[in-house]
Amino acid sequence: MSDTNAIGLHEDSASQLAEKLNALLANYQIFYMNVRGYHWNVKGPQFFELHTKFEELYTDLLTKVDEVAERILTLGHQPAHAYSDYVSMAVIGEDKDVRDGEACVRGVLKGYQTLIELQREVLALASDADDEGTAAQAGDYIREQEKTVWMLNAYLG
Ligand SMILES: [Fe+2]
């Protein structure tokens, strides 16, 4: 049993999953900061609704940042914890100086679409490794965020 970790998953699978989850974590961190920026910088007639909505979304992203990091620890690995690493690991880019409400919402939409794609990859890898814990977490996030994508698209008309 020496090739399994504390929760009975093969070490090789756990390493691969941790690497994938660290990339996901990096994207969450960059996206979180982008949404925080939209919350601060948005201007115009939709200010009050968007300012409030962005706070709701970044608060949820921050919760998931912690959950993803702690899943990596549960798998027996270390979560990335430096912004310099996040910037180099993430496919979501930093989105600066966005003020127009619709542009902010488009940035949020794009970020969620990227997270969903990455989480489908996590889900597939976790399923192959019989890692129900990681698969369930990814599945929950995908379901929630797909609904958010629908709502963001409805907002954009
Ligand atoms: Fe605020």
Automatic annotation (TrEMBL):
Coiled coil: none
Domain Ferritin/DPS: 19-157
Pfam family name, one: Ferritin
InterPro entries: DPS_DNA-bd, DPS_DNA-bd_CS, Ferritin-like, Ferritin-like_SF, Ferritin_DPS_dom
GO molecular function per UniProt: ferric iron binding; oxidoreductase activity, acting on metal ions
SUPFAM superfamilies: Ferritin-like
Source species, domain of life: Bacteria
CDD domains: DPS
Family: Belongs to the Dps family.
Name the UniProt record assigns to this protein: DNA starvation/stationary phase protection protein
